[in-house]
Amino acid sequence: MCLIFHSVCVIIKFKEVNVRKSVLISLLLVSGVFSMGDADKKLLAKAKQYFSPLPNSFPSADNPITPQKVELGRLLFFERRLSVNNMISCATCHAIEYYYATPASKDMGALALQRRNSPTVFNTAGQFIQNWIGNRKDVEDQALQALTAPATLGNPSREHVEEKLRKIPQYVELFRKAFPEDKEPITAENIAKAIGAFERTLVTPSRFDEFLKGNTKALTPEEKRGLKTFIEVGCATCHNGALVGGTMYQKFGIYEPYWNYTKSESIDEGRFAVTKNEEDKYVFKVPPLRNVAMTAPYFHDGSVASLEEAVWIMGKVQLGKDLTKEQVRDIVAFLKSLTGKMPENVRTPPILP
Prior knowledge:
353 residues, mainly alpha, Cytochrome Bc1 Complex, Chain D, domain 2, 2 domains, two-stranded antiparallel ribbon, disordered N terminus
């Protein structure tokens, strides 16, 4: 009997110990979840101080977006007959297969080699200025100037390209529908407005937008570490806003000359070419980082092929910091979360008139 009762007591005590362990483990797990939840909330709050989700489009008071303009602009974006030699279109340097960017350091235009790398046109309409050196006001101005620039479409005059399009009946009708109030719809300005309207719809939201909207599970732990590092080391000082860049100018090479690390073939003086002010030497528009993992090579001259190397170089020349391999790895993981979904209507080229 004593042995039996002793065994029962041992069993009861063993169960009590197991229950206590289970309760303790459960409390630890719950505590960890709450702790992780608090950390995510703090990171989200910090991120919102620098970034915002992408809008559905980038509207313009001067060029209201209409379905007719967008469809016409999409056709014109791929239209090689806009160039002097019928060989170059916007899509030549901003190609579908490269996320509307280019794999080349610099592209060949209709008549001349471009001076700088062609960035993606996804989300580009949301920038405060266009081109690396800010010599184009907006996407409409960019499209208009491209018509006669030797390194892009190379036409001898705006009238030259207007006359070409007026000989294509389908375009006559499409322009009439897109610009119904204009007596003569086919003008260089309207070509630019149509292309601009199309580009204002090229928005690529990603998982980072879901995170900014409150879904803290949208990013992986490594991506969150990268976001935290991105903010803490100082990247977000310049790369901020909905586009994670594209909001300001900055000198490239604050702490050291950029060419010491990029091994650039030539030294570009940046906005100095526009303003002739000494303080604008080596100053460029801060590029947006949306889809950056899909749009190598990097920097204004396409001198660096690797995103990891580009991040490390930025740490050296812009922040004066020698980022560790772990920091670079985590930042790159975060940058990859900025890769957005390509809109369905721009995944294939259109059939042209």
